[in-house]
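Closing statement on the 2-deoxy-2-amino glucitol-6-phosphate sub-project.
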Amino acid sequence: MCGIIGYVGRKSAGGILLDGLQRMEYRGYDSAGIAVLDQGTIWPLKRVGKVATLTRAYSENFRHSGTIGIGHTRWATHGGVSEQNAHPHLSNGHRFAIVHNGIVENYEKIKQFLQEHGYVFFSETDTEVLINLIDYHYKKNPAQSFIEAVRKSLRHVEGTYGIAVLSTVYPKELIVARKSSPLLIGIGERENIVASDAAAVARYTKRVIYLNDGEIASVTADNFSISTLDAGAPKAVLHELDWEIRDSELEGYPHYMLKEIFEQPTVLENAMRGRFSEDDCSTKFGGLPITLQDLRSADRILFCACGSAYHACLEGKFWIEKFARIPVDVEYASEFRYRNAPMGQHTIVFVVSQSGETIDTLAALNEAQRRGYRVLAITNTVGSTIARAAEAGIYQHAGVEMGVASTKAFTSQLTVLSMLALLIARTRDMDAIAGQQYVRALRSLPETVKEVLDLSVEMQALAQKYHHYKRFLFLGRQAMYPIALEGALKLKEVAYVDAQAYPTAEMKHGPIALVSEETVCLFIATQRTFWEKTASNIQEVRARGAKVIVIVSDDQIFDERPYDEVVRIPAAHVGIKPILSVIPLQFFAYYTGILLGCDVDRPRNLAKSVTVE
Ligand code: AGP
């Protein structure tokens, strides 16, 4: 949930740390801080609020140009949002400083132990306990190496951590370590950068090494060495980042969310590139180690995910069950990990996670593997923990998603899942002609999405008209129900308004009690099949005073006069229609959030990837 960074090299560390923090701010943004070692002293600078506030304070007051330092953007877990609780935390005597992502679960016990040894604490955080434990172990044997003092301390820690530690005693070295919290080393020219996130290092180097759980590393300007907590020597694997620095820049857009909505044609093109079969009747995924026979004999597919990725999986269920006729279960990862879900002998498990770091999804993956199942991942983040823990998987290739509310990553997940449904369907019931039509639809997706993006102005006008309403109901049937869920989630996330989603007909079984003159009902009704039924449901809410926005396809011809608003998207194959249908809802959430004065890129209380339980 927090972003951490460390720099050791020959340049002034402060500016590099702040640049990295700004690029990782989507990870957490209630406070931020840096600490630079200069002339034998650690100089911290922390501020409550956004990185911009810290950057201002840095330009006004900070005069320390040391070439080694650490930084942090925080999403509070232990202790409220205050400068005192912000990272970096210093040990008593200021010999050590730390930035930490994760939770030290046994911190009370360690704190008590340290208090008995004379340590005093100035914050409410678990992190301050950890840095003083390091100091304690250092003092027991000042002749030992830096890495040894940290290693000894970590052996006593229960919980999760990604840490970077700085010290006046070892002025040329940073120590980093991880357990269930991402950490990578960016290898530069006579400089190295450690971070929780590739976005923070991509500007300086594309060569990175991802630490594995239980690994600890010493990093200097010219070198690094990785070992394990029990002093083993793991093999370091060098990865090449495929992220472009422009991905994490606004490029003229007022917000990342809007930029990422408009990037969707390219993103979807990238998700599909090279993934159609030679005969153009099916798809193929290079990274998928399962054979066509495996797919044909699968008795069940299980998807585990959270949030928007969970909604994408619900859509995947619809497509796979409709076209491939395999039963599909979709589980919240956070629930699956604690329940003994019945699974078949030939169940294939997919975990879906944009960030590849969501702790619940990772735990679901571990649980399925523990039970002996093959687990494949669909993720946007190359080298992420989930990508490395899964047997194999499919990358989304959506580029960095900076907006906390997922847009382009969601539609690229949908695209990959639709292609997966086609692949499985072609091993079973779907004939070549139907396969060809499906492929044609997928190929047309980027161009059709461009047409839907033209709705931006219309959706802005609707947001203008309805943003002051108190309640929003999103209603959709079958393939449009996951889209209704996603539309409601987007509005909640970026505009903080009460938005709920139901299958359209289910609305009569309770939710209709909420409907009044203060309600806006958004019907995602882009399927011709259900139009008559939906039209009746619309009358039911209109009769109770609700305003109605209905999203339909161009091929649905009806008298529009009784509806407050009718939004049209191009008619399309059901394999891509849900992808088109969500885009107007993304715009609606974005513009409503803006009109209500919300920070749409960094909504309150949220963080881009949820790495704590
Ligand atoms: C979506 O807008 C969210 N911010 C959130 O629901 C997200 O989809 C969820 O936390 C899962 O994240 P992941 O895809 O990185 O695992």
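The CA atoms of residues 538 and 548 lie 7 Å apart. With this model delivered, the sub-project is considered complete and its resources will be redirected to Aim 3.
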